[in-house]
Amino acid sequence: MNTHPVAATRETGGAIAPHLRRLLEFVEPDRDDVCLDVARGRGPMPAALGPQVRHMTAVDAAPAHAPGGHGTAAANGRTNGRTSTVEFGTGPVRIADGDTPPASATREDRRPHPLGPDRVLVKADAAALPYRDNAFSLVTARFSLYNLGDPEHVLRELLRVCRPGGRVVIADLVRGNLAGPERDRIERLRDPDHPGTPSIARLTEMITSAGGSIRRLDVFTVERPVEPWLAGACDDATAGRIRRALIDEVDGGPRTGAKPRIIGGEVWFTQSWAHVAAEPIP
After folding, report:
1. How many CB atoms lie under 10 A from the CB of residue 237?
2. CA angle 2–71–213, rounded 5-degree value
3. DSSP string covering 45-111, please?
4. How many CB atoms neighbour CB 8 within 10 A?
5. What does the pLDDT look like over 214-229, one tens digit per residue?
6. Does residue 264 lie in a domain region?
7. CA 227, 183, 272: angle at the middle one, nearest 5?
């Protein structure tokens, strides 16, 4: 499978990385949307979505004591004026060093991202959001679902505050339904508090069990350099062990599940990402 690098897109306030641009295209923001983004720390979504919606609220839901099949898509056609199924690309998205997403939804998401006028940043518990039912038409959570407490409780809250006909969009790491446990072993070696990577089926099952109806699904492979990811390892010795394991796999050694290869003299590896759009069931 060939890799097709994607150029960053210039928008108001700077360049948007290709992986974030893909998510924004999937979200399909509307000028009339009242949007809530829930993240661990300050994620990039409020700054990216803010200019495209009527009102933007960002929740920093970092816990006070934080622990360190493709599902079912809607039938062809359109739902509430939005595309009901999405197919993207013909190969892995390649993310260069400057475009690296959060390694474990903590480092990048804690950088300050300006919200601008008419946008609000609050601290709140993701499992007990301080908003009435049906308050928002668009609710997003990017690389944070498994870092904000019990993901099923969080999903119920995200769906509760979303109005009928609105949508909840979850972006997170996933693994294939038939993938083995090797990938989580290397993730936990890098970060002992890694909560585990859900299968695609498990993620969609949790959303439907929480009261959501899956409307659209985008699952794709991301290829990225290993060194920025290893910068988040618990210590240098652990980073070295992972690096050696990946290089050994390139040379024919045991599989890690990360599918490493050498690009331009650097070690790169792969992750699977999913974007899921759901609508609360009345």
Report:
1. 8
2. 130
3. HHHHHGGGSSEEEEEE---TT-------PPPSSEETTEES-----SSPEE--GGGPPPSSSSTGGGS
4. 16
5. 999 999 999 999 999 9
6. no
7. 75
Return all residues near 175 (Cβ < 8 A) that are at least 6 apart: 183, 184, 197, 198, 199, 200, 272
CATH number at residue 84: 3.40.50.150
pLDDT at position 83 over 50: no
Cβ atoms of 24 and 11 closer than 8 Å = no
Number of separate domains in the chain: 1
Question: Which residue's structure tokens are 């993730």?
Answer: 187
Q: Are 63 and 42 in contact (CB under 8 A)?
A: no
Q: How far apart are CA 20 and CA 9, in angstroms?
A: 10
Structure tokens at 55: 């009102």
Encoded tokens for 120: 């609000």
In a domain, 62, yes or no: yes
Span 4-12, mean pLDDT? 34
d(CA 103, CA 111): 13
Report d(CA 147, CA 108) in Å as an integer. 14
d(CA 231, CA 163): 40
CA distance 147 to 66: 8
- What Rg, from alpha-carbon coordinates, does the chain have? 18
Per the listing, tokens 């609050």 go with: 122
CA atoms of 138 and 149, how far apart (whole Å): 21
Give the domain range for residue 41: 9-184+193-222+273-280
Instruction: Please name every residue paired with 16 in a beta bridge, in sequence order, or none if there are none.
Output: 9
Residue 62 is predicted with a pLDDT of 78
- How far CA 59 is from CA of 23, 28, 189, in Å, comes to 19, 20, 30
- Say if 16 falls within a structural domain: yes
Tokens of 271: 């992750």
